[in-house]
Amino acid sequence: MKRAGPVEPGRIASGGDHAAIVEPGRGTVTYAALDELAARVASRLAESGVRRGDRVGIHLRRSTDAVAAILGTLRLGAAYVPIDPAAPAQRNARILADAGVRATLVEARLAGPYRAARAEIGTHATRETIAEIAEIADVGLGRAISDWAGSAGASSAPIPSEPRDAACLLYTSGSTGEPKGWVMQRRAIAAHAGWVHDFLRPGPGDVYANHAQFNFGMSLFDLFSCLTAGATLVLVPDEIRLLAARVAELWSRERVTIWFSAPAILGLVADAPGLESLDLSALRAIGFAGERFPAPRLETLRSRLPSPRYLSIYGSTEANVAAVYELPRDRHFDETPPIGRVCPHYESRVVGEDGREVSEGATGELRLRGAGIDAGYFARPELDAAAYAPADDGGGPWFRTGDLVTVLPGGDLRFSGRIGRMVKIRGYRVEPGEIETRLQSHPEVREAAVVPREGPDGVRLVAHLGAPRLPLVDLKVFCSRSLPAYMVPERFVFHERLPRNLRGKVDYATLRAIDPDAGR
Questions:
Q1: 178/203 same-domain check
Q2: String of b and e for 185-203 (b: at least 16 CB within 10 Å)?
């Protein structure tokens, strides 16, 4: 078994008959089979006209087929654009139209709604039109995409590419009402996976469990650090991802060694019955990121599973993993742990409102620069202009993360909130403005404001509407037609008119103070 050497997106370890991917309940795919399949996908895409620099939409459930599609795209020097198959077809069509994909690989069962939505927005698409929509039958173990690739030759030589070439476009919620795509460069993925290799030293004996959808930045950790290290990737079935007992059973059954997820899932595992009866001795590292991990739940988990390393990880769609803090085994936490130190492939600054670096004990905005974060948003120069601050030291510009951190004694950082309104819901970044835009398109909604509320189980969204009282089920159905489930508000509060401040703008502070459950 050989690692792939310096990480090159699209290339995997030379593992022969070693298990590369496990799909529980379906079977296993070896490294040799996955490598051949990725090469055949690359050849088939090339026959379809995909070239270096093009973009390919991946509209497939998490599966060997989707992994092969990603690897094949990268081998051509093209970039993959993953979308959430569970998200509304309208939103997915808008994303792939914005990305100007050259081809889309779409699962057959999703093709009808996707084609209809794509046709509906066709005249409004601002980028090049889609050259091909390839329907892939029921995915699993690579058989469906193998049938699609047909007799395409399996050339093992990847198309030459440059480190700054795009590897993928990751779309997130946008404050203007439309999703925005971040360009993740090939060298950014290489830097991230290389850091994981140095920090965790994964190898053929390791088993990663992937639960994150491939349109979520967290999936890059699983895909690229795993498959370039020769480890095994277990694709956690969607139907058990939020069932704590079954997640823990999968850890035991598959001998999982590395797990990385949002705290919401781990919080459920902390309370799962029968945890101590399972053999979880293989589990050596548990990472969590994307939202605060309430200290009581975290300490419950650590007391019930004391052996693994626990890693508090900070990142974002743009930066991926940018900082990490390993929880000392002899320390008990009564508050959310720090995010630690910035990873070595980044430089960092913490600055106040005046742009000057803050001192120890003070709070400021975290800014980053380095191989992982110097690309930008796809075809959105106005967002790039706002996202980067010029350097005063002759180096490259600094990326404004929009995250506030406090500099602790000794140099560790603690996350202290956001600048602006963006929030994290189950690890996903959510811009309330996008939800407000959709709600305001309802014929009976005059105005809308969405605010987050902290609860014992994390953040929930509350929508305040200037509207007559409407059926809640109807409102949720209306939202779900164009928004993914994690962006649909949990509560709706109706007003004759929304409160406004002296400048005439919606008074969000007043709305945050309103108990949405009062009078229910």
A1: yes
A2: bbbbbbbbbbbbbebbebe
CA proximity to 476, closest of 11, 465, 120: 465
Mean pLDDT for the stretch of residues 468-475: 94
Q: Look at residue 474 and tell me if it is in a domain.
A: yes
Helices in 175-294 by DSSP H: which ranges?
Answer: 186-200, 219-227, 244-254, 263-270
Give a yes or no: residue 260 inside a domain: yes
Residues 6+ apart with CB under 8 A from 113: 89
User: Is residue 19 included in any domain, yes or no?
Assistant: no
DSSP 83-123: --TTS-HHHHHHHHHHHT-SEEEEEHHHHHHHHHHHHHHGG
CB 203 within 8 A of CB 119: no
pLDDT digits (tens, 9 = 90+) for 230-263: 999 999 999 988 788 899 999 999 999 999 998 8
Closest Cα to residue 251, out of 296, 297, 216, 285? 285
Q: Are 221 and 262 in contact (CB under 8 A)?
A: no
Q: What is the pLDDT of residue 156?
A: 53
Percent of the chain surpassing pLDDT 70: 94
Record the pTM: 0.87
Final residue before a domain boundary, out of 424, 458, 488: 424
Among all chains, which residue has been given the structure tokens 């400021």?
364
The residue whose two tokens read 């620099």 is 53
| Cα-Cα-Cα-Cα dihedral sign, residues 470, 474, 476, 479 | negative
* pLDDT surpasses 60 at 403: yes
- Edge-first strand order for the sheet with 341-342 is 27-30, 19-23, 232-235, 207-210, 258-261, 285-288, 309-316, 320-326, 341-342
